[in-house]
Amino acid sequence: MGIKFKLTRQNIRKLIVIPLALLALAIFFIGLTYVQEGTILKRGIDLEGGTQLTIHYSEPVDMASLKNTLGSALGTSDIDLVTTTNPATRVQETLIISVGGDISEETISTAIESALGITLSPQSYSIRVLGPALASSFWRQAKWAFAFAFLFMAGVVAFYFRKPLPSLAIIISAVYDLIIILGFMALTGMHLSLATIAAVLMIIGYSVDTNILLTNKIIRERDGELFERINRGMKTGLTMSASTISVLLALLFVGGAYSIVLRQIATILLVGLLADIPNTWLLNSNLLTWHQE
């Protein structure tokens, strides 16, 4: 079944309000988090240091109550709680508790035993401790990787099109997707981790891919009227996005139930892909059609 909706000269200028509204909301949540927390995003233990316990625990958990109890006992609010389930039975299997800062394993274990009313044994849990120095090294390397990836992407785009505005529009689109993802993470309280950084880098690549498709249709193709070319490109782009989103939904609900890393990657990719649709076909289309006409 073909796409019923088509972009025209009459509706494209009005529809730009959708991506701009999403951008305003994302900036609002980022700013609100900065005012409340003093930082745009909290870093996870792999970028800040801390202790993570994975406990084999199948009982229902009141996350808010447990977090408050542990926070009072440990004297910190830098606590993250996640459960995983068995993909086949959909039964909860583990409770993952991450505590930032330099708090001893014994202190954390004692607080957890008291809060849950259990006794931890070597068979019932595993622990991962990451020192602040190593976490800082990971964070520094992640920032350099992100900076180089973005610079190389911008260089390749500029070399390929060799026109300032089309190249700048693609770079703006990548920044737009990044801001939307950061706004979502600020809204949901998701911590920045190596997994989420990897997902953001993948989204930058996907954003460039769809925007190069659009830019080629507008700037380089000459087969048909301008908006005919845009709508042909949009049909291809939305088909690509729909197939990728379907795969990511399966990853989120099947793999994400068992692995916190897969859950984080799938969530960030889904948010980025959904944000990229109005970004590419409404915001960037406006910029490029204005340039072309």
Description:
The structure is a single chain. The protein has 293 residues and is α+β, with helices and mostly antiparallel strands. The chain folds into two domains: 9-43 and 134-292, Multidrug efflux transporter AcrB transmembrane fold, CATH 1.20.1640.10; 50-130, Alpha-Beta Plaits (2-Layer Sandwich), CATH 3.30.70.260. 69% of the residues lie in helices and 10% in strands. α9 runs antiparallel to α10 (260-292). The protein is elongated. The model has no long low-confidence stretch (mean pLDDT 87).
Comma- or semicolon-separated keywords:
293 residues; alpha+beta; Multidrug efflux transporter AcrB transmembrane fold; Alpha-Beta Plaits; 2 domains; four-stranded antiparallel beta sheet; 10 helices; 4 strands
Ordered list of secondary-structure elements with their pairings:
Elements: H1 9-15, H2 17-37, H3 45-48, E1 50-56, H4 63-74, E2 79-85, E3 92-100, H5 105-116, E4 125-130, H6 132-161, H7 164-188, H8 194-220, H9 226-255, H10 260-292
Antiparallel strand pairs: 1-3, 1-4, 2-3
